[in-house]
Predict the structure.
Amino acid sequence: MNLGAPINSAALEAYAALADGGNTLVFAADARGKPNEDFDLFVARRVDGRWGEARRIEGVNSDGNETAPHFAGGRLHFSSTRAKSSGRVRFDASRRESWLKSPGNGLGDPYSVPLSAIITGSSTPPA
């Protein structure tokens, strides 16, 4: 369901999740405000029945894609394609296979942050 402005925009928006009694909305958006941007997670709060402006979740988004937000156990869980290192490594088939099977390989690992961090806007980068 399209919620209209200020939630929906001309960007591709998907993967919506609600928390806090339906007053906190987290969703992923592609190229929202910047061309050629990866998916980032945004949060919006509903106060007195009206949605406020959606903002990027500081400390959560990376240079990869952040998608699939959901809430459980007082935390925001999501998937990210962030890589553990942006440095270049000499190609080695055995090293490459090991890297592909490890976390931080840029293929969509799970992460989480406390729900309180996204509601207040003061989160630390996920481990």
In short: Confidence is low (pLDDT under 50) at residues 85-91, 122-127.
